[in-house]
Amino acid sequence: MAEQDAPPTGAGTFRVALAQVASRLGEVDENAERHLERIEEARSHGADLLVFPELSLTGYRLLHLTPRVAIDPLSSPLLGNLARTAGKMAVIVGLVERGSHGALHNSAALLADGAVTDVQRKLYLPSYGLFQEGRFFVAGSRPRAVTVGGHTLGILICEDLWHPGPARHLALCGAEILVVISSGPGHLGRDPHPATQESWELLTRAAALQNTCWVTYTNRVGWEEGVFFPGGSHVVAPGGRIVARSPLLEEHLLIVDLDLGEVGRLRRRLSLLADSRPDLEDLPEGGGEEGER
Amino acid sequence: MSSPPPPPGLELDPDFAVRVLTGFLRDARHKTGLSGFVVELSGDAPSVLVAALAVRAAGLQRVHTFHLPCGVPETTGATAAHAAADALGLTLQTFDLAPVIEALFAAGGGPGPEGRQRLARPVRRLVLGERGAALACLVPSTATKSDLLLGRGTLTGDGASTVYPLGDLYGVQVRALARHLELPFHAEPRRDAAEDSTDAVLHQLFDRDLAPSEIVARGQDPDVVDEVVRQERRSRPGRRPPVVARLSTSAVNLDLELPGDRGDSG
Question: Fewest C-beta atoms under 10 Å: which of A113, A194, A226, B119?
């Protein structure tokens, strides 16, 4: 296995691989095959964690196909095969989760040590503009930090980053890395990149600064029903500096070594989490005090 | 071909826009498994730009262009169509449809050149559709966002297509992209200026979500705003999927939205 030939990571260094892929809508088996190829490639680079985009196994705009591609992640042979192939490398995969009582969830499965070890559900389901997630999915209830290789991660699915609460919650739970997976469509502007890329980089950089942690953003590429997904996956260091980007509009595997010691160093200099006031950040129902609306 | 650049809010990075639109056509060809594209090259900016994008997406050998004069006053020129084909390295085939139009007109066409124009649209589409089927090619629409919003991309004419590469670009943006690619196209300054005014109103109505009164307050001619609003409202039914009498809980396009891009293994 080429994994042995990959340059080793140093102490406190965590090697992530972001798989910017073009999933085929509804083609779960074909998408799984391409996941296997990326898993082999990331292993050959000695990655500790490989991240796929939101709904990477199914494609995004499923509409009434959504129930037909749903799987139970804890018993899925397909996910089991991906997990076994990944071996010691952890993998985050996007999928439609079949929950209880017929509920469907836009979820991320964490594969580690050859098994499915965690499943996180999308918390905010956009149902404006071209988005219709509220019609087909049930939202998750709480963000939950997970552990990979002794490090604490928080997983956020696309829209979850557009609301500051979940990222802050995960950072307060100890997350050193916020892993954002997305199927974010693009639109054009006056600059030589999608106008949406500016929004995403603004959000990921702000999250890395406010929560003093690493942020990885993995977006898909390709077309669905006239909608293009521009990619633009990237990694942001604690404090907000973008350290690596994938190219736009093409499939790519971005490999980045994260110095996790930087999290602690920044948090000692910039005690935003220690100074956190949950009593002020936990807004009441409706978003403001009475009389202020 | 001189015309002002797109107004504020409608500027595009032309290279990135061309790259994205080329990707759209390349993806459509890949997913359908068809060999290339059939394009009606009338000589106006949309037709020339679609031909150029098709060449980028599929290569010269897989793009087939046709000029289809119908014996009625043309708003665009054959000269421009031939110049564009030459510039792109394409062979332009001309089919004179005038006899067909005259025969249909004799069977009950409406009065004046407008009647012949109305007959010409579906006849052109019929010919292009047949060429597309014979050559195993997609027939992309050349309708712009302006056309779609105002009902100019009619269901029996330019609207009868499965792919609309320019469907989210206003006419003023299409002309800017064509100029950026240095494509020759037929321009009519007075008509283009009127379309620019229309596009400015549509942009403020639909991209900026302004009310007609707010658009007038920002300096637009009230008569132009009224006319654009009237045309847009009148054309709405033609932009919707076919209206189905819903009798079950799985009516197509009402209860059941099945994505066309879907494969078969899901």
Answer: A113
